[in-house]
Structures are given as C-alpha cells and as structure tokens.
C-alpha cells in the first residue's frame, strides 16, 4: 500500500456488510478513533476494482470466546482461552467508481489520507472552489463546496445548539472571517468587483459582544496551538476583522440627540441608526410594528394595512426641512391611487408648516392616529381604519402606544439607517432593545436589503447573520417578518441574499428556513431536541448531546454523511473582556492630552 492508504485491518466476514455500512476487524497494532476515514479496495469477479470510502462511526471491543460476563476474569487470568477483537463500524461516504455494492469480506481496510482522503470527502468534485468549514478531529481541514454557499447550487447556513455551549455565533463569525478576511475566501467570492462589493450584516443580540470584532483577541496570543490550527486552514496570520462598521440605537434624551448608546466602545467608534418619519412611512415599516399572530390574525392587521396606505397617500415633505420631518395632509390629492408600492416610489411634494399634521417623531404619528380615532366623521374613520369596529381601532392604537417608548429612539428627525457602502462587515446592535423593537429593526433592515437586491441578480452577495431565529420566524403563527424570512430562505440564493441563521432548537423555527439551508451545522444539542435533527445519524445525535464548545458536526449536499469538525479559537474579540487595547486609539488619546496641556495658560501643578 502507498502512504495514502495505511492498513488498519480486514473487512469483518462474521457479520453482513452492505452498500451503506460495514465493519473492520482491526489489526493488533492499529490505533484509530471515531470520525477517521477508511478506504477498502475490492476486486470484482469481472476484474474491475472498486474502492469504498467511509467514516468510522463506532468502535467495538470484546473477547472472542467469552460467553458470560464472568468469563472476562478467566480470560485475564488465562484460565479460559479467548482473543481480544476490536472492530470499527464504518458508514460509506463514497464508492469509486459509483457502483452500489458491498465490500467483500476479508478485503484489506486502510486509513485514507492525502489524495484518498480528498476523494473520500468529495474535494475532487468541488471544482468551483472550497471553503474551509473547520478541522477534523485529526487536525486536517474539511471543506464545503462553494457552490452550496454562494447560491449557485444552494445557499444559507442553519446552525443549531444549546445557548452558551454550542458557540453558534462564534461559528457563524468563523465562516464570515474565512470569506471576508482571508485571501482564499475573497478569491472564492469572484472577481475584484464582486468581492469588493460583498457585504455582511450581523445582528448583535447579546450585550455588546460583537461590537469588538475589529479588535484583536487578547487571549489569542497565549494559545500557540490555535495559531497552528489557523495555519492548517490556510490563514498564516489571523487577526481581527479589518473592514467593519458598528451601529447602535441612539441614546434616550432630548429631541435631536444622535449619540449612540454604547458603554464598552467610544461613541465615536459607533454610528447611531434609525429612520426618519419619511423613511418610516415610505418604506412601509408600520407593518413590522405588528408581528404577533394575534395581531395579524384579527382585523388589527387589516387596520395596519389601511393606515399604512393612508399615510402614503397623504405624505408631504416639510418645506425647507432636510431632517426627514413630514406633514400628513388632511386630504389626499385627487386621483391618488391605493397601490402602496407605487405610492412609496413617488417623490412627496413640499408643503409649508400648517398644511397638515407635523410628524417629527414616532409619538407625533401616534398622536395623529389618536386624534382621528375619536372623530365622529364616519367617512374619515372608514378612510383610515376601514369599516372596523371601535374596539378594533382601540386595539390597534393600544399596540402603538405600547411601542411608543420602545420605538421612540429609532424614529426621529436626523436619523439614518445603516449604509452598506463603506465596509464589508456591518454589526447592528439590538441587544438593548425590547423584543418588539428588535423584531422591528430586523424586519426593517432585512426588508431594505431584500428590496435593494430585487432585479440586480445574484452578485454582489449579501450575507445576513441572525441569532435567536425562533424569535423572528417561529414554527407557528404568521407575521410580515416571518414571511420575509421564509421568502429569503426560498428565493434568496438566486438573488444573492444568504442567511446564516442560528437557533437553540431547529424544531422551534419555521421549517422552511432549516429545510432550505444547504449547509447544516449542529453544536451541543439538548437531549430532548436531538430527534429533530434527522440529518444526523442516531450515533451522532447522541454524541452531539456531549459536544464541548468548539466542536460541531456539518452536513452538506455533496457529502452524504455529516462530518464532525472543530474550529479554532477566534483571533478577533467576541466580547468586551476579550478585546485587546486599541493601540491607535490610545496613541490618539495621548496626543490629544498633550495638545490640551500645551494649550493651557498659566502655571501647571503636578502631584
């Protein structure tokens, strides 16, 4: 045998082998572990040879000759003749050439390495590029076919596992780092124009953890073995994300406050985000204020549609204003239609102050709707709320009143949603927001990304990382946000919008999302949920309940069996405690202090 095929034993002839599974009786000197790759070459009666490639899924050991448990001691004492037999259970990954038959009993089994390992994992079929998914348990890289990552033949990634143990967000960032921050990853994204235009949108849902991805991880330098793992993945000098923009909601306070609310970063490092009243109305974001099943199932959802259309029909710009304030006219212009998409595309005319109800913030809009709701003009009420009962109108207003405090910082004059123009990675902090406001922000931003990609083709790509997916697209119920995410899951790959979604339990998410994900990854699973992961073998489902952080199992269409992998410790900070000091910022602060001291007049006192 050559160096790529090192003998480990013989195919067991005492039990049946089939085209899916066989057993290997291990040689006395063989040491092998789970998930190693095995090759068995068989000569057929017609003189052809066929090679079965498989992965070790279980290891077995027994004394051949012992029939009772008590015989074990007798064998050890050598009063009963028996022989130690070790076996490996192997599941077939691939047969070359593709013939569906069982390996012959007694055929030599070998450990697959080098070229044979690449064939076993279908790397020779990955002709459009290979994206490193991580390392196998032996430290060799495992790849994904790029066609199933970038939308050409499939798209989307579904990551599942227990919160805090499965490291779902860390793995999503690992994939993004491979794509956006390595030379190999950028080459996979296409030509210069395509790869320079690719963008990733990451929602930060826990603390301010992801607001430090542009800073080195202070713990990484003390882990030399992690450097070796990154080098094995083709990354000789791993570091922080280099092209990053950070966003956070503005802080509470007086009108016009545009300071982002952050604690672990300087406010100058983070951009505030939000929407002006004009953007809120023209982008039809009112629909993302009503996201629960009860609201959409009743006539409250109908009222929302009516109000959204009336706001568009009566929308005017405030003359001389450049901050996004609007005026809602008392009457719509003659011949104004009712198609919301067409109404949103038109440019509103400018009117002077006093030509209608002035809206500078979310509360002004609620005040307007409350004033209309108490009118006794039946035609006015029908125009705004349809032919609904007073109780339905009040339920609609109560919902908006509950949202007033939560959405207030997000809607106001002078605010702007994020721009994808100046960086590859955009991190949007929603961790401090109420759940309703989080759903609003996710819906508003995803809707914008989705609309901008309509009619533009697959390139340039847009990646979206969203944790706690069950909150935004639950298995039961209906909402505009859930329908948007399902639409992205079903059509997104053809439009270049690729979702990297994470959830604790796949069963809690609308099934269209994990079903349409070409790459499925699972970390540590809850034992009660393991049955929901049918893409895993029963043995792997059981093992996944004991995975340690950093260990995952990945399934992709081109490889018929899931492969356990590990990914290295991140060189970028994934929380404030890991963030190394920013030397450039420190130097700038020192220079500013020196300038301040130089500008002082009069005597200086030193302690």
Summarize it:
The protein is built from 19 helices and 22 strands. It is of the alpha/beta class and 607 residues long.
Helical run tally: 19
Binned strand content: 15-25%
Number of strands: 22
The proportion of residues forming helix, as a percent range, comes to 25-40%
Q: Order of strands across the widest beta sheet?
A: 12-11-17-10-18-19-9-20-21-22
Give the biggest beta sheet: 10 strands, mixed
Q: Radius of gyration, Cα only, in angstroms?
A: 30 Å
Describe the structure.
This protein has 607 residues and is of the alpha/beta class. 30% of the residues lie in helices and 22% in strands. The chain is built from 19 helices and 22 strands. It has a 10-stranded mixed sheet with strand order 12-11-17-10-18-19-9-20-21-22. Helix 9 crosses helix 13 (390-407), helix 11 (362-373) runs antiparallel to helix 13 (390-407) and helix 14 (435-453) runs parallel beside helix 16 (480-495). The relative contact order is 0.15. Mean pLDDT is 91; it is low at 584-593 and 599-607.
